[in-house]
Structure formats: C-alpha cells, structure tokens
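Hi R.,

As promised on Friday, here is the backbone we talked about, encoded as structure tokens. Could you run it through your design pipeline when you get a chance and send me back a sequence?
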C-alpha cells in the first residue's frame, strides 16, 4: 500500500507485507489513521502518527473475504463488510468488535456512514441496499430491480425519479436527492413500456403490455385510477400541459385521449371521456400534446407523424401528415409556448425539427445514438433528450433561468459540445437514461440506477 501527498504527488510511505490482495482503503476523518481490508478476512488499522505505522493492528472477526471498510465521521468507529454476509462495527481505541449486523442474504461489497454517523448503509450481491440505525440495528431495506432497467422518468419538479425493469412488474420511486428508493408500485401484469409524471408532479401514469394504463399517487404510491380500452400493449403515455387529459399510443395502431376530469362514460355537454385517433397503419409509438392542448402529434412504425385537431366532443381530426423519417418514429414533442415547432426522433439517431403550420422540415440532425424521449428546453436553444441536451436552430426561448450544462450521452462517452468529457466503464453504461437540468439518471442492466451531476460553473 502506498501513501502519497496529494498536492505534490510525492510518495510518503510504502507499506508491504500483505499476504493477500487489498480490497478497500479508508482514511480516518483527521487523516491520522488508515483502515484497509484484504481477502484474508482481516481489517488492518494503521496509525500514521506512530513510529509503528509499518506494523498494522489486525481486527479479526470476519470468516470470509472482507470487501469494504469505512470510518465513522467522528473517527471513533470502523464499519467493515464481508462475503460472510455480515456488517461489523469496531471501536477504534480498543480495537474490539462492538456490533455485528446481519440481514443480507449474499456477499456485501460496500459500506458508508451518514454524515452525522447515526446511520450506516450497506449494499451487496443480494441486490439490496440496507440502511441501519446504529442504535437499533434494524435495517430499512431498499431492494434494487431484479432485471435490466429499461424505463426511467423524471418528475418535472426534479425531486422524484421513477424506474421500471424488464422481467419485473414493479415500478420504483426514488428520491433524486438521496438516490434512495422510497416506494414500490405493483399492479401491472406484463412489461411496463413507458411512464410519465403529471405537470405538477403529483401523479405518475404507467402503461404496459397488459393493455392497461395505471395512474398512481406519486407521493404515496397509492393507485388512483385504472384505464382500460386498448386491444394490444401500450407503448407510450403522456399528460397534457394542464394535467386534465392523458394520451396513450398502442400496438393496436390507435391513440386514445382520456379526460381525467370525468368519471362517467360521457360528461356534460357531450364531452367524451375517451376519444380515439385512428390513422396509423402500424403500431403507434409516441404521442404529445401541444402546449395549449389544441393539437396532438402521434408517430408510428409506419414512418409518419400525424398532427390532429382536438375537441371535447368528437374524436381527433387529421390536420396534416409529416413524412421524412426513414424508420419508426419513437419520440415527438411540441415547442412552447405556441407549438409552432415539432421535434421528432428515430432509433437511427435521426432528429428533425418541423414547422407545424407548413409541415416543412426546418432542421435535421444525425446524432448516431438512440433517442426515446425529447422535449424543448426552456433554458435555451436546446432539445432536452434522454441522452442530454442537443443544440438546435429556429428556437430561442426567452428565459431568465441559467442554462443547463450542454452535456450529451453518446454511446460509451459523456460529451460536451462534441468533445469527449467522461468515458463510462462497462458497468456504468446505461440501458435507459433521463436528463434533468445538470443531472443524468442512468438505468443499468444490473438493475441499479445511478446519477451523475455536472458542475454548472464549469466553462
């Protein structure tokens, strides 16, 4: 083990004599001690202020490889985790084991204290994170997804994140600040394809291959409403800007508009609870309301985008058909505040900006990566996508807010203004992603969800 001076890069100490590989190292808060763990089942404690620093003190108690170690914020305790499925707490002064925490069902790889030292987090191969109250030793369990995460949705207010995984019928709600899973939503009986938060962030809509849409209370996780009517799986769902209507796109080639203010089959003055748009010849893939709720855009595997006129008492009427994509169109979005522009994206990385009044293509971008969500950013001339921000022409909102960092997820790299910024190792590459302000939320094939925040002040 080598100890370096961070400011100069000078090598201060080299400590040898280990009988097996070093798995983890942790400095004490004051920097005067180091704890390290190895595959020989021992936690080693070094006092850097002592003349005996080359002779570590062994803390023995684990019965299998030790993978992680951490000092408490006050430096008085050490926590270690092991393949023996236990978390152990040690007293630094006496070098005695003071507590063993059990509950994990597989090897434990990581451990960390909360800033005030009252809580301890551990995570491991059983795909769960356990939060321990040190005084009670009873963990609060936040299990991860059991399959690859393929859908993530960010609350407009930025406080909540929703995720869903293949081979699993559960939606998880996360606190985006703490990155803890706070609720599980269960009800779908087949794959969940899409999710959308209401504009006020209070509701979450999810759609599934089970031909249903479920609306949930995003704060409590309670089911609010079940919408049935599609004859095949539902691929996309979105709220209107005022949150009163919901639109869904289905493999049955139709798009349905649901009036959430009505409970009966038909409301007063001839208002319809459900309106159906029929015009696509292949499964419908994406749907978007215009900001004023007067128009709807839908896209499909038939390569076309249809603009519809909406009314309260009749099914949508076709305004015009937009042609130009070479493969299925998977994402559409209107520009605020008037909806005079429409953005669309295909899996081949073809992104187009349309003039909705003329039906003309104003700009085409080829970005060579898969885009499955798209919207116009209120913070500048950008498209906000699941991969980050794309600079565009013909759009420049008047906003007093500061701009987001214009980073983009391009394959294995995070880029900024076309330059490679951060390479993602295989374990951190995403199966799904969402971008909000300056934070990426990435879903992974392992079932985990991670977040990356970028510094807004970086030039």
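Update: got your reply. Pasting your designed sequence below so it's all in one thread:
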């Amino acid at each position: 083990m080598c100890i370096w001076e961070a400011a100069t890069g000078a090598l201060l100490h080299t400590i040898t004599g280990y009988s097996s590989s070093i798995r983890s190292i942790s400095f004490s808060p004051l920097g005067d001690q180091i704890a390290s763990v190895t595959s020989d089942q021992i936690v080693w404690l070094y006092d850097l202020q002592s003349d005996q620093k080359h002779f570590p003190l062994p803390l023995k108690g684990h019965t299998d490889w030790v993978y992680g170690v951490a000092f408490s914020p006050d430096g008085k305790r050490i926590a270690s985790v092991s393949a023996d499925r236990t978390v152990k707490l040690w007293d630094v002064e006496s070098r005695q084991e003071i507590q063993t925490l059990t509950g994990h069902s597989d090897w434990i790889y990581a451990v960390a204290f909360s800033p005030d030292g009252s809580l301890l987090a551990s995570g491991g191969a059983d795909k769960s994170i356990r939060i321990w109250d040190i005084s009670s030793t009873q963990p609060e369990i936040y299990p991860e997804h059991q399959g690859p995460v393929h859908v993530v949705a960010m609350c407009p207010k930025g406080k909540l994140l929703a995720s869903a995984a293949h081979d699993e019928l559960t939606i998880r709600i996360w606190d985006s600040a703490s990155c803890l899973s706070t609720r599980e939503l269960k009800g779908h009986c087949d794959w969940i394809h899409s999710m959308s938060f209401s504009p006020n962030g209070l509701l979450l809509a999810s759609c599934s291959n089970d031909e249903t849409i479920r609306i949930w209370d995003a704060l409590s996780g309670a089911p609010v409403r079940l919408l049935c009517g599609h004859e095949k799986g539902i691929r996309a769902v979105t709220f209107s800007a005022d949150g009163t209507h919901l639109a869904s796109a289905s493999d049955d080639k139709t798009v349905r508009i649901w009036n959430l203010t009505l409970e009966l089959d038909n409301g007063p003055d001839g208002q319809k609870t459900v309106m159906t748009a029929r015009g696509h010849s292949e499964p419908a893939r994406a749907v978007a309301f215009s900001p004023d709720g007067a128009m709807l855009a839908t896209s499909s595997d038939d390569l076309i985008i249809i603009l519809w006129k909406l009314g309260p008492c009749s099914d949508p009427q076709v305004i015009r058909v937009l042609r130009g994509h070479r493969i299925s169109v998977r994402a559409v979005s209107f520009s605020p505040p008037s909806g005079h522009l429409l953005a669309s994206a295909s899996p081949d990385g073809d992104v187009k900006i349309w003039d909705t009044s003329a039906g003309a293509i104003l700009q085409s971008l080829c970005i060579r990566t898969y885009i499955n969500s798209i919207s116009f950013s209120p913070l500048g001339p950008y498209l906000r996508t699941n991969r980050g921000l794309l600079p565009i022409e013909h759009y420049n909102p008047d906003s007093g807010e500061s701009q987001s960092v214009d980073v983009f997820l391009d394959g294995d790299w995070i880029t900024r203004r076309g330059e490679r910024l951060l390479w993602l190792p295989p374990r951190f590459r995403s199966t799904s992603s969402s971008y909000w302000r300056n934070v990426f939320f990435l879903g992974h094939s392992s079932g985990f969800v991670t977040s990356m925040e970028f510094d807004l002040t970086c030039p």
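One thing I noticed while checking it: Confidence is low (pLDDT under 50) at residues 399-404.

Thanks again,
M.
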